[in-house]
Amino acid sequence: MNGMVDAAYAPFKAYLVYNLFWFFETLQEGQNPIPPLKQKYKDAITLIKTVKSSNFNVNLYPQANEIDLSSDSKVEKYLTDLYSSLWVGMSDEIYFDEGLMLLTERLKVNGLDPYKLFKDKYVVDAGCGSGKWTCAIARLGAKKVLGIDIGKKGLEFANKMKGKISEASCVEFSHANLTNITLEDESVDFLFSNGVVHHTVDYNKCLKEFFRVLKHTGEMYLFVNGPWGLWELHLDNTLKVVCRSIPQRVMYNFLVSTGMHSGAIYWVMDNFYVPYERKSKDELEELLHQVGFVDLRQLARGLESDYIEKVFRNAPYASLRYGEAQLKYLAKKP
User: Fold this and answer.
1) Quick one: which of 75, 116, 20 has its CA closest to 274?
2) Chain-centre distance of CA 191, in angstroms?
């Protein structure tokens, strides 16, 4: 899309990357993704040439500014601002009912009893965001749940939402950085971190903090993204590059206009605009052992729609499409 710098092109770009984003979902299971992906790119190039030749670019708007991620503080501010804009659109149904269902079913398919996992425990939801998972953990019988996050607006939304259900009376929220958790050593029974550490500015330090605050024999649930194969190349080398010139508000409004529900909008925006640090299964396990965790148990199953489940079932081309997909572990502090 070189040359399409006028911001008037942003809605067109949003449309294009939105359609490219769902490419893997349109494939039949067992279909080699490479030939149709090549054709998809060819079709996109043809469309881009058509739009450019229409002389649509009339310099109505300034070129979108490049996102500045040159320091840890700027990365944290960027993430805080982005996520804060997403929480407010989350419906009660997505927040409470879907959150509880997804967490429960993903644990059950891995042979875990969600109620036994959390019952009567002091749980910290590290990187709680909107508090969606925090409230789900409370409903699964936790004695106390503390949600911590760097996003103050997200925490304000979480405090508002928790007041809607009686089970969340054991929930508290606190502003804190995962690289410097304001809790005493060995004070927590269970540490829960769902899809957060790979976004932070110091992956290793987060895990060390998790280990520090856990009691002896305490457990951690950790979900991070591993290498995602062809999907990662498609996302990082194409879609994210284009999204640098699409203002986040333009993309968000476009996604809303499609009728997409709030949970899906969050997921798409997360993929388009948030930086990731991906570690392989071997790298992650080595790091967890170095930090001090023992009894690592990989939770290799997921729901039917989860990439991790497709890889687990060794579906044809699943590893090529999704690499190692989501990496989920239970681990203990000795």
Assistant:
1) 75
2) 18
Which of helix, strand or coil describes residue 239?
A: helix
Could you report the per-residue pLDDT of 70-88, keeping only the tens digit for each? Answer: 565 655 565 566 555 555 5
Question: Measured between alpha carbons, how far is residue 252 from residues 82, 130, 160, 248 in Å?
Answer: 10, 17, 23, 6
φ and ψ at 329, to 5 degrees? -140, 145
Residue 265's nearest CA partner among 94, 44, 125 is 94
- Residue 68: CB atoms within 10 A of its CB come to 10
Tokens of 320: 């090529």
d(CA 197, CA 224): 7
d(C-alpha 238, C-alpha 236), whole Å? 6
Beta strands, E only, 238-333 = 294-298, 326-332
Distance (Å, whole) CA 209 – CA 170:
23
User: Helix count (H) and strand count (E) of the chain?
Assistant: 17, 7
> pLDDT digits over 253-309, tens only?
888 899 888 778 888 988 998 888 999 999 999 999 999 999 999 999 999 989 999
